[in-house]
Amino acid sequence: MDKQLELVDLRKAYTPQIIPVKDVSLTVKQGEFLTLLGPSGCGKSTILRMIAGLEQPTSGKILIDGRDVSRLSPGDRNIAMVFQSYALYPHMTVRENIASGLKLRKTPPGEIQQRIHEVADFLGLHELMNRKPGQLSGGQRQRVAVARTLVRRPDVFLLDEPLSNLDALLREHVRAELKQLFQSQNAPVVYVTHDQTEAMTLSTKVALLNNGFLQQLDTPEGIYGNPANQFVAGFIGSPQMNFLRVLCDGKSAIVGNSLIPLPHGVTAPTEVVLGIRPEHVHLANSENEPTIHGQVFLVENLGMHNLVSVQVDSVHEPMKLRALMGMGERVSSGSSVKLAFAIESIHWFDATTGDRLSGAPAKAGVAKARYELSDSPSP
Amino acid sequence: MEDVIRQRERRTGWALTIPALLMLALVFVYPIVRAFWQSFFTQNLGTQLQSEFSGFANLARMAQDGRFWQSLGNSAVFTVFSVLLEFILGLGIALVLNQTFKGRGIVRTIAILPWALPTALIALAWTWIFNDQYGVVNDILLRLGIIQTGINWLGNPTLAMVSVIVADVWKTTPFISILLLAGLQSIPSDLYEAQAIDGATPWQSFQQITLPLLLPQIVIALLFRFAQAFGIFDLIAVMTGGGPGGATETVSLYIYATIMRYLDFGYGAALVTVTFLLLVLIVAIASYFLNRSRATSGGV
Amino acid sequence: MTTVSPEDIDRDALKRSGDSIVKRLILPISAALTVIFCLAPILWQLLTSFKVDADIAAIPNVYIPSRYTLDHYRALFERRPFFNYILNSAIVSIASTILALGLGAPAAYALARLKLQGERILLATILLVTLFPPILLFLGLLEVIRYLQLGNNYLALIIPYTAINLPLTILVMRSFFQQLPKDLEDAARVDGYNTGRMLLEIVLPITIPALVTTGILTFISAWNEFIFALTFITREDMKTVPVAGAQLGGASPFEVPYGPIAAATVLGTIPLVLLVLFFQRRIVQGLTAGAVKG
Hints:
The complex is a heterotrimer of chains A (379), B (300) and C (294).
Chain A: E1 4-12, E2 21-29, E3 33-37, H1 44-52, E4 59-64, E5 67-68, E6 79-82, H2 94-104, H3 109-123, H4 138-150, E7 156-160, H5 168-183, E8 189-193, H6 196-202, E9 205-210, E10 213-218, H7 220-225, H8 230-235, E11 242-249, E12 252-255, E13 258-261, E14 271-276, E15 282-283, E16 291-301, E17 305-312, E18 319-326, E19 336-340, E20 347-350
Parallel strand pairs in A: 3-8, 3-9, 6-7, 7-8
Antiparallel strand pairs in A: 1-2, 1-4, 4-5, 9-10, 11-12, 11-14, 12-13, 14-20, 15-19, 16-17, 16-19, 17-18
Helix pairs in contact in A: 2-3, 2-4, 3-4
Chain B: H1 4-38, E1 41-42, E2 52-53, H2 57-64, H3 66-98, H4 104-116, H5 119-129, H6 136-143, H7 157-185, H8 189-198, H9 202-230, H10 234-239, H11 251-261, H12 265-297
Antiparallel strand pairs in B: 1-2
Helix pairs in contact in B: 1-12, 2-12, 3-7, 3-9, 3-11, 4-7, 7-9, 9-12, 11-12
Chain C: H1 6-16, H2 20-50, H3 53-56, H4 71-79, H5 82-113, H6 119-129, H7 138-148, H8 154-179, H9 182-191, H10 195-224, H11 227-232, H12 241-246, H13 258-291
């Protein structure tokens, strides 16, 4: 039977005021790698702990391979988890750490040995087997923690920010290793992180959460290219997307001294939020694209690119636009520039709700945005 | 939906805690409650075997009891002087130990010894030291020519109190210094560095950083030490037995004599109750001031 | 860029204020004074215990005796069952320590990890109870012991000592448990441990250092206790060391055996001195953990 994890209307309330998870439903299938992404306090860790059975949902269900496990203890769910601090038993050797879960399930000793051997091969742990966690480096401990999950052959893999305790260089390296490792595994993987780079590079699907609500569930490309609301657009992508709040007249938005037509199917609003990523903003070189005039006030050197901040000429409130320019395009602080961007690269957002404005119907799996702090049930 | 995990936790929690709580109740709560009840009865096993209800008779007797008031005074004198000296000396030693120097570990080890040794046996040692004929104190004073004949330390009312206080200070100061040392070490060193860069003298640093941050711990330690000193028994019982002439008889000794020597259980219970209430009162007042100072100083 | 360490800054600042010489003088002198202060009475008793009677009663005092004797120590064992005293103290101290740990550690775990209702009140009560001086408790307990006919029974001491040590045990162990990473227990649950096995196989082994530390503190406290030992145990061969030592009398009411008393002091304190020497670091850890609870 196909392995699958399903969350149905999951909700967690500690008190009537503290509700970390408000209303989350999603499915993770065999072979999928889902990342729960979001700022601190968005509820991603709580969701992971509920899947693990370390917390109980206030309402809603968790289904693993079709079984309702919502009330089962963690040991009965056949899940395995890598903790942020690795949580290796300090008084046991590496071998005993890896074997502990299997021993508790009364796996025959012969099979335990075989599985441990396989995993040690896989992760290169043979010399470390008889050491205690205190004698291992951070990276080694992390591998042991992963080994401990692999050896269990669980129905679902859970990982709670496993890279955040590694230093930056090691993190990149291990990230790549993890991706390859879990690609070869069968069971669905749920990964929690606040780092969008990890989310984008590792996952097949990303669930972006904010304040307990699911903002968007989509592939990494989808979340980057078609953000469902202003929060998603602003969270994904570095440097952050530019948001320009502009007035409209009927079918066009007034941006600086240009008129930019709104997409089809959008009813005439008075105000709209125009979103454009810095990497899509360049020096104007043709008449086909809308242009914006402005003055450069800051140039930040990012190595391969320059992040140029421009004060836009505007009769209304002052606006800032940031452009990511290659080293070829040289601009200096204080100079006047003409910036341009393709109309197709623009993301339009409703000025009040922050929802994406588009003529096309909402994509399947895209949730409604929630900005209010009050807990209103989904309509 | 009921949180099964939380429920299970709660049940386990109580199961784990209750045995300890029961034992505490038996040894700490029951005797106090019983003493409270008993103080309303006259029960002197020396004069009559049956106890009879006598209301506040014991209390009335206490008000007239000169020996009780004297013992209260002695307790007060002993407690105040001991605790004061211990803290001042203790703070000094703590400041010394707070510096890094060779042999610091040894000094710290030695500093623990007075606290770790049995008070009764230490009292014996101090009795010998203060002995009027053969004691070391007299010997040193004589050699230095400060006195001409040996002082009868334990036979003189005032000096006996001095001797007992000295012994208690010796026993407890190191312990206090270790507590204060822990407090000192918990103050982040960057605060001192910032002060040093600003050009503050060590004394100024002490006033502005050390004292305020240490204050909560000092007060708490003071409270506990106060209660301990108030109830002190072993040291005085062994060194002076309460003499001479009741000059060092503290409330605790009086209670013990009343009960064990005079077998006056009813009156003894009354003494216990009143002492207890007095202690609670003082601690309550002190805690009140502690909370107020916390609120105004605003912890770091 | 060179990094400046705190010690450098301190020394620089001190040099600026011209205090370094004073500091260099005050510090060693204070340290020396502290050491002398702490050791003097103990060393004096040690010396006395080996002096012959004539030297003990010599005026002026003999600081460096020319002759030594072991008579006083022999007297302790011949005239009194001193060995029994030591055994009694050991039995009572060890038993109450084990009991205090056995009751206190689980309670501390519950208070650290499991959110109980009224936890604050419980902790405050436990703290409060440490303020009660034993002198106020012995009457009630005396009656209980008489009633249960536990006079001259080890239990008469073991149970009160356990109770006296419970607050410290609970507080110290609780602060220890609070520092244990919660992840470990979560990982154990995910592995499949139930609460009982988890506590025994995962939490307990990690807790052992803290248990040792706390055990040392409770042992010291039990060994040194006086009031209960004096009141509840009257049979000579069941007395504990502090009581027996304090009651050492000579052949006649006028003869105070200073020599044997000194010897008793030395013997009665040796176990503790050894403990302190070996476990000094742990003791300080435990004391400060219990004290810095605020």
